[in-house]
Every structure is written in structure tokens, then in C-alpha cells.
Fold this protein.
Amino acid sequence: MTAADYSDKIPNNVDLHEDRRLQRALESWQPNFLRWWDSMGPTLPTEDVYLRTAVNVGREGWAHFGHVAMRDYRWGIFLADRKHDRRVAFGQHRNEPVWQKVPGEYRSELQRLIVIQGDTEPASVEQQRNLGATAPSLYDLRNLFQVNVEEGRHLWAMVYLLHAYFGRDGREEAEELLHRNSGSEEAPRILGAFNEETPDWLSFFMFTYFTDRDGKYQLGTLKESAFDPLSRTCEFMLKEESHHMFVGTTGIDRVVERTVQLMVEHDTDDVGPHGGIPLTVLQKYLNFHYSVSLDLFGSETSTNVGNYYTSGLKGRWSEERRHDDHTLTNDSVMVDAVTADGEIGQTEVAALVGLNSDLRREYIGDCQNGVNRWNRILDEAGMPQRLRLPHVAFNRKVGAFAGIEATPDGKGLTTEEWERGKGRWLPTDVDKTHVRSLMRPVYERGRIAAWIAPPRQGINGKPFDYDYVHLS
Ligand SMILES: [Fe+2]
Ligand SMILES: [Fe+2]
């Protein structure tokens, strides 16, 4: 049974009506969620938005598209289909049947992993809440809201697990997920990058490219989990997540495209006065979002993560496609480090301890694809400039390089050199003010702001000038 039951107050494909206690618990959390959505969700008043809603978890036709009032969006609980005879793919429980219940000895670790993942979902909605006021087009506005409602659904996905499998502690954690807020002094979100603001659309596209992509990789490790309900939840979330990546990738494509047009048209790199975003500013935003997203992977070495792996709680990216023993007890890897003489280098550690680095490496490779894509746009326009990912040691607050400063090329710097140079590598107040000055809303059908090119295609086969959003 994969189709969602929409007759329930909470749409779901987990037979919620068969477990009255759980159903009641979630139904009493629902108004709190809506209160949170009303007070912390999108601020732009809208009548309705052309949104997709998940209706099925199968391969085909899993989503329904239509205009809906956002507050009436059917946030639901959807798990990917159960795989017959699924077995643990790694760690000490390898080849044992996966778990349908939480083993007592891993209860607190699993709960922690779910809470950390769950905390990021509403955080990004909070970070993006004011962006509707400056959307470059109705198409973009619709994409923003699509991402927002789906992050809301991802919160539901994690809250379901907390309620269904973690008893009272889980219910308390579910409440806390609505009480913490991005950027709050008293109760901030758990991870640093989720307390940064997303004040403009360039930041939004960078966020959906780099930070949502971190989410993709974290979900990828949880999808491997021996705790089957977590695995199935994450598998379905990844499906929705790919649209968020698309928004980021194509958003930056379109900014680069427009910048190049202005460069050609005015025969200058300095397209700022012509209403564009200069490549140098794009590079600085990229540097910022990439480096804070790298922080989300944690330290290069971590015994906790090694233990999660051995216990079967969280695997590697594409675990089943790896050609090794899937226990890693005798393997070693090189990870980034500051060497004994204070240089940026590498060191050899046990593979289990280096698993954060393994995931980060996969992530970096994926990030590079976007950069190549954007550079192709520059190349095809005959521009010599190129965008690039900064060195892993650049602008880090977490891990081996937190205590040092480095250029985007990975050259070590004194604090003084860093202070003098950072305005060349990270967005300055002048850059941010310029970008924000371009952020004026364009709400007419088929029109678009001057700093970004229109998309090549609309959503779900609709044209770009479709009425994606009705404002109120
Ligand atoms: Fe998400
Ligand atoms: Fe996302």
C-alpha cells in the first residue's frame, strides 16, 4: 500500500488510523505546527500557490499539482515502500534483518540523529520567511514556497518517528522542534548554518545549492540506517529534496547567464551599475555558503560517527555500491588536517573515525558539478573568468581548520592577513547592500527581475508566464 490516505486529518501511508494513541498524539501536535507555520512561515500573504503535494511514494506519479492555499497544504507522513527481507548493509549487524523497532541500546543516539535532522527542516523555512517580498518572478516565488512546504513536511517526517518510536521523550523533542528558532538568542537552531539569515535571493539559491545539498548527503546516510522506518522516511524525503537542489542549481545558472549577458552588452566586468551581480560578488557568496555548509559535516575525525556506523545507525553515501567489507575495522584513510608544524595537510586515521571526511568528499565532488556547469555558461559566452570552490581550510568554524585562517587557495594566513584580505573573499557590506538593492519584487505574470535570466522551462509543463501564485 503506497497511496496516501487523504481521508485522515493527517494524510499518511502508515495506517495511522490503526494506532489511535499515535494518531491522537500527532493530531494534537498538528495545531502547534500550524501555529508555528503562521508565526514563522512565509510572510507574504497569498491566496494560493501552484504546489505539488505528495500522494504516492511509488516511482511514477507520486505528486499531484494544483493551486492550494498554503495553510491548507496537506502535510503528511509518507514512507517509501518496505523492502522485503531488507538486511543491514554495514557494521557489526551486517546481514541481520533490519529493525522495525528501536533497539534499547541505540535509543538515545537514534533519537539524537532524528532530532538534529528534524531541526534543520523548519529552520530553513524560518530563514527564508521574508524572501517572498522580493521574488524575482512568480515562478521563483512558487519554487520558494514549494521548498518551504516540503521542508515543513520533512519536519512532519521526523516528528512522526519521534512520536511513533520514542515515547514521551520523543513527544517532548517534537515540541522543542517548534520552540527553537533560527537565529534566536535564547533557543537557536542546533546547527550553525541554520542560524544564518537568508536575506536575499542570491543567498537563497546558494543555500538551496550548497546547504540543502548537505541535507541530501545526511539523508543519504540515514537512508542506509538499520532502523527501517528511518531509512524509508529518508528515502522518500530525498525524492522531494531533488527539487530543492534543482532550484539552487538552475537559480545560479540563471544569475550567471544574466551576468554574462550584461557583461557582453556593456563590455565590462563591473555589471553592478547595470543592475547585475558581478562574478566577483557571485564568487564571494559561493565562498561563504560553501564554507558554512562544509561545517555541517562536523570534524574530519569523529569516534561518535564511527560508532554510529558500527552500530548500523547511519551508513555511508551509496553504501551498497562500495566495494569493501562494509565494516571498515581494518581500513585507514587520509583526512584533512593541520600538520605538526602548523601547515595545512593530511593525516592518516582509522577509516571508521574518518567517516565524516568520507561523506564530505562525496559532497564536494557533487558541489563541483554545479561549478563546472556554471563555468560552461561562462565558457560558451567566451568569458575567461571561472568560478571555483574554495579550499576546505577557507573560512571554517568547525573541524581541523577552525583554529587557522586560509585563503580560498588554501594558503595559511596570520589573523592580521585574514582581516585585511577577507573582504576580497567573503561578501562585504557593500556587496550585500548592492545585492539587496536589486531585490525588488516582480509579481506580474511572465515578467522577471533584471538581475536574473528567466528559466528555460516552467513547472510541470506549464509555461513561465503561468499564474503560479495568486497574491492576496
Ligand atoms: Fe528537507
Ligand atoms: Fe531541502
Residues 121, 151, 154, 215, 241 surround fe (ii) ion (ligand 1) (CB under 6 Å). The mean pLDDT is 96. The chain is about 45% helix and 10% strand.
